[in-house]
Amino acid sequence: MGHTNEPPAMTNGHAHDTRPAPPPPPPPAAAAAAAATATAAAAASGPAQGAPVASKAAKAARRQPTVASNEASKLVAQKIAQLEHDQAGEKDQEIEIEKEVRKANRELHSQTAKMDATQKVDHLSRRCTELLHEMKRHERENLKNKKRAEQLQKERDQSRTELNKTITLKEKLEKLCRELQKENNKLKAENRNLKATDEANLNTWDEKYATLLQKLDDLQEEKDHPKKQVVDVRLEELFRQRFKSMIDQYELRELHFHSLMRTKELEVQYNLARFERERKRAEAEVALSQRLNEQVQELSRSEARMQAEMKLILEKIEQAGLPP
Prior knowledge:
The protein is mostly helical and 324 residues long.
């Protein structure tokens, strides 16, 4: 049998994949999504608070291309390290193949040493036929395994892309939740300040009304026990009208205060409900991310099994004494 060397591009019975790593998802789409999320948050929180949120979202959108470029650099470095490792493994495999070929040649020579020419021809013909049949069968299996590996690689890349999108969406939702929490805390602080101010105003008015009531009691006491003084009817009527006007103003102020308190309570409830809805959506996205991670791990395990099967096929071919 002639001595042949395996081509350096063959590894584990199939051509080594030298394609570059898939590019990361385009950052403009992520930036546009972040800008849209910031706009929605600004519209929900009001015109006075929308400008800071929009500026923060714009800064986050500008940071997206840097993060994407770092991920691409990491992927390229991992691919280069994998290629170097595969090249070192190819050299070791070539040495092992040469040893197996020499061993097969020695065995064949020892088997045919005591045969005559006819027996040698018959033996070699049967051996060649068997090896050719087995080689064709291994080639068909190798093609099927190669197609399956390519399909698994495509599915893995697709799952990885979906996982990156899910992680990006999760980060956006977490950022939105933080912004909503800040807005809620700000509204609570404003509500506390408003309550303190209203209580101070009420205390001031209570003091004024207490003083006024004391004066009225004194006047009533003077009426009940007059000291021989002339009562001015017009002045008393004017005083009565002014006192009634003050009572009406007090009631109006109290109604206005209750309406303001009710409005603030409704705003707090609305923000809490909105925060709860966003939190549930974020939890759903986290669950989806976990499922995608499980699928990626399952695909990795399937790929490892396929590589083990291909390695077993290569060992069978080497034992048969044929180059893969």
